[in-house]
Amino acid sequence: MKPTFLNKRHWSSKAIFKQISDSGWVNPGIDSKYKEFFLADLVSEYDSINLYHYLYARRPKLSSYFVQYLDLWFADEKNHADGFLELNRLLYDMSEESILEKLKARKSNFEHFEQLLSNELSLLTVFAYDEYTSVKTYKKDTFYNDFGNPLFNSWISNLIADEATHFANAVKLLRRNHLSNTKEIENTLRQIILLESDQYENTFLLDHDGPHFLLGSADFAESTANEVLAIITRPQK
């Protein structure tokens, strides 16, 4: 059988956290400072539903490749949100009902993203940038090793691998369909840098003003955009 053009990993957050719960795991005294941190991560992943619904009406005008990309990405993001929900329940004894009630009460505003999300090239570029940033931020979270069960680290490693796959798939589609328009990709990245300074409004995209995204200097957006552009335009062997 010929492999599909886009890649998809298959695993379950809920299955991993069930293994942790069934193992008799006892909280080793995980610092309560992580509570806000993990709730912010949950919000970021959960907000994929807002972006997916925003883009859904545009599916007839998008290529079949991008529609497939969007569906594969959304399935993964729902799995990630499930994981952070289970993590918050397990560590802080929070009820699923109370968490979901707060998540669903929030509203999204895509007004600032209308131009960025208006065509497939810029959509793929912002996905590439956003997923690449996620890989960088989650990779710095080594504290899972101290949570008393190696499955915590297995879970976040799977999540990071998914984000890397989303990035690689976006780059693959940009190279396949848009590499002749490198200047427009670069212009889109410049626009993304400007939008990074805006307040996050539950759009999933550019949610880099919370406690999770501590990437150092204020110019991280420009350096990240330059890295993404270099990868997209890198000569292929």
List the helices and strands and how they pair.
Elements: H1 13-22, H2 34-46, H3 48-56, H4 64-92, H5 96-104, H6 120-139, H7 150-177, H8 182-195, H9 220-232
Written description of the protein model:
By secondary structure, the chain is an all-alpha fold. It has a single domain (about 15-20, about 30-230), classed as Ferritin, CATH 1.20.1260. The chain has helices spanning about 15-20, 35-45, 50-55, 65-90, 95-105, 120-140, 150-175, 180-195, 220-230. The relative contact order is 0.16.
Q: Average pLDDT across residues?
A: 92
**What are the low-pLDDT stretches, counting only 5+ consecutive residues below 50?**
none
Tell me how many strands there are: 0
Largest sheet: none
Tally of separate helices? 9
